[in-house]
Amino acid sequence: SLKTPRKIIIMVKAGQPVDDMIQQLKQYISKGDIIIDAGNSFFGDTIRRSRELEAEGYRFVGTGVSGGEEGALKGPAIMPGCEKETYDLIAPILTAIAAKVNGEPCCTYIGTDGAGHYVKMVHNGIEYGDMQLICEAYFLLKNILGMTAQELHEVFAEWNKGELDSYLIEITSDIFTKTDPETGRPMVEVILDKAGQKGTGKWTSKSALDLGIATPTITEAVFARCISAIKDERAAAGKVFSGPSAGAFDGDRKSFAESVRRALYASKICSYAQGFALMKAAAQEYRWDLDFGRIAMIFRGGCIIRAQFLHRIKEAYDNDPDLANLMLTPYFRDILEKYQEDWRRTVATAVMHGIPVPAMSSALAYFDSYRSENLPANLLQAQRDYFGAHMFERVDKPRGEFFHFNWTEHGGKTSASAYNV
Q: Tens of pLDDT along the chain (421 residues)?
């Protein structure tokens, strides 16, 4: 029998199976025992379960786990959400299981109730963005430069020696070395271009919409999988539309490959900036005391998005825990300034050749929008006020005071200190 308080880890499919398992466990556990849900549960369900179980005298831990098959063998990144005193009871178990980087376990206390599963959800959203950006870089090198699988392997292997050093770049390089035993062709070329998804990227995008946080790169990565899924429609459309006639690439191949690398890194920075901005908003909304530096630290090992540059994120939040956006830190700011010309060149070349780069172009648009003091939202507010009297603020009046203009010359003028007519 287990010592009390009992500590029980469950890993079952998200949703109703978790609730069913908890109900079964209640027959065998006592008040004060700890149930650890280490599956991919939706954070809202975890918040509900935490409240319900705590009201009954049990303790519940919603734990995000990332690492895949390799994580199961060598240790994953672990993100537990619960009361701090509960975490202290289970920490020896979780830190022993977790991956280690420089002797430090990739496991830390995240916050109360659904915080752990929320951070894991955003981790997966960032993972979606990372993967799509890498796929777009591959597509550019393959279709514009005509690189073979062997050349692609060499390029990605070289990239993995520098600032793009990461698990996903490493496995991408390895993928290009594999040959299909049936046809003798590169394995990647016999795989149907129809991507699957399990929903965590969608959850991230929906949460971003709920909280009013822009995560265009992550969301475009979700949509890219959606449009990949309509393979037959795309094949039919390809016979209807010809696309641009840009002709063969006649520039410097090595220079363009470097531009793609820089565009990939700059876009990656924006994708992570979006993910961490979302976690910051969630911390305020759900009253979680998230330590973003420690979160970046546990992402450095065991998980799918582990990357060399995560220590830069940790340093950024260690220096300024209230940082508004990762792009504003000296290191990332300098990279974006230095790389933006190549980034723009890459996206423009893709557009001229009719090659879709939704994640890369959305990251650039995010960067340009964020650095723009003025955006066309003034016209948008005028439109909203014209058809719906939704009111607007004025540049020459104090913030928080709202006005309505008589656009049709019928009715009267309105102003208010609240957003109501």
A: 678 899 999 999 999 999 999 999 999 999 999 999 999 999 999 999 999 999 999 999 999 998 877 777 889 999 999 999 999 999 999 999 999 988 889 999 999 999 999 999 999 999 999 999 999 999 999 999 999 999 999 999 999 999 999 999 999 999 999 999 999 999 999 999 999 887 778 999 999 999 999 999 999 999 999 999 999 999 999 999 998 876 778 888 999 999 999 999 999 999 999 999 999 999 999 999 999 999 999 988 878 888 888 999 999 999 999 999 999 999 999 999 999 999 999 999 999 999 999 999 999 999 999 999 999 999 999 999 999 999 999 999 999 999 999 998 876 666 555 554 4
In a domain, 1, yes or no: no
| Burial class for 301, CB neighbours closer than 10 Å (0-12, 13-18, 19+) | buried
User: Are both 96 and 138 inside the same structural domain?
Assistant: no
Start-to-end C-alpha separation, the chain: 66
Q: Are residues 29 and 155 in the same domain?
A: no
| Residues designated catalytic | 120, 127
Domain span including residue 40: 7-113
- The continuous run of DSSP H or E covering 77 comes out as strand 77-81
Q: Which tokens hold the place of 408?
A: 């049709």
- What CATH number is associated with residue 53? 3.40.50.720
Domain end, chosen from 113, 140, 159, is at: 113
Contact 126, 271 (CB under 8 A): yes
pTM (two decimals):
0.93
Is 133 within 8 Å of 363 (Cβ atoms)?
yes
